[in-house]
Write a structure and sequence with these properties.
With 244 residues, the protein is an alpha+beta fold. It folds into 2 domains: 117 residues, Glutaredoxin; 101 residues, Glutathione S-transferase Yfyf (Class Pi), Chain A, domain 2 (Up-down Bundle). The protein contains 9 helices and 5 strands. The chain is globular. Strands 1-3-2-4-5 form a 5-stranded mixed beta sheet, with helices on one face.
Length: 244
């Protein structure tokens, strides 16, 4: 079984005063993330914690069927799915519920109800945009390329217009929010997998560079904890654990 590894991300000043939450058993205890040794559905959680300056530990990565069966038997996985983030004494599941919790706690949400509506609305659209990208190595290459190209053609003009209309290099308001991090994840993935698709969108390339340069995000993206895109070994590991 692989050993636990600790992520160290430089702390950045929170953009709003954090609210009191359920205390952890120890003030020094870091959040613990359970997932495979891959980006997957945990990557947006990692990026959000990195942006917030939250340091976390990775539990031993899922590698055998008994690894996830043990977690399921523990009752910590409400829907029997990963990722699981143990934070503030809570066993948190469902990726975007976790992202919203971290965002609310560390000032990555809206300043008011209208901004929060726009964040929630754009977040749903970004999840639709990201879905075909997440299928990399789970479907034939040509079908994957066609699906991603279709998604880029549909969604990229929308988000480029939102960014242009907002006029602040952020999708909502004048500061970093969770939807900036969602869009960054998509752009980084496209840059890894099909960079030619970004050639028509120089403004989005510039946006990616600026958001990626935020110190806490830049540190994470350069760290050994930033996994490469899926490869055959990663897919084989996931299939082995899930028995399919």
């Amino acid at each position: 079984m692989p050993t636990s590894k600790t992520t160290s991300i430089p702390k950045v000043r929170s953009q709003s005063r954090t609210r009191k939450t359920k205390a952890m058993s120890s003030p020094s205890k870091k959040p613990l993330l359970h997932y495979w040794k891959s980006r997957g559905r945990a990557e947006i959680i990692r990026l959000t914690m990195a942006a917030a300056g939250v340091e976390w530990d990775d539990a031993p990565y899922m590698d055998q069927p008994e690894d996830i069966e043990k977690l399921r038997d523990s009752g910590k996985l409400v829907f029997n799915q990963l990722p699981l983030l143990q934070i503030d004494g809570i066993n948190m599941v469902q990726t975007y519920a976790v992202v919203r919790y971290v965002s609310a706690k560390h000032g990555l949400n809206g300043k008011n109800a209208e901004e929060q509506y726009r964040i929630d609305m754009l977040s749903e659209g970004l999840r639709d945009f990201a879905q075909p990208i997440g299928a990399y190595k789970f479907m034939p290459d040509e079908a994957f390329k066609a699906s991603v190209t279709q998604a880029v053609d549909r969604y990229m003009p929308i988000f480029q217009k939102v960014l242009t209309d907002n006029g602040t290099n952020h999708l909502v308001g004048d500061r970093l929010t969770m939807v900036d991090i969602q869009l960054l994840e998509i752009l980084l993935s496209l840059n890894d997998l099909q960079p030619v698709l970004l050639d028509k969108y120089p403004k989005m390339k510039e946006y990616q560079e600026k958001i990626s340069a935020i110190p806490s995000l830049a540190a994470y993206l350069k760290s050994e904890k930033r996994f490469p895109p899926n490869d055959d070994d990663i897919i084989a590991s996931i299939k082995r654990v899930l028995k399919f």
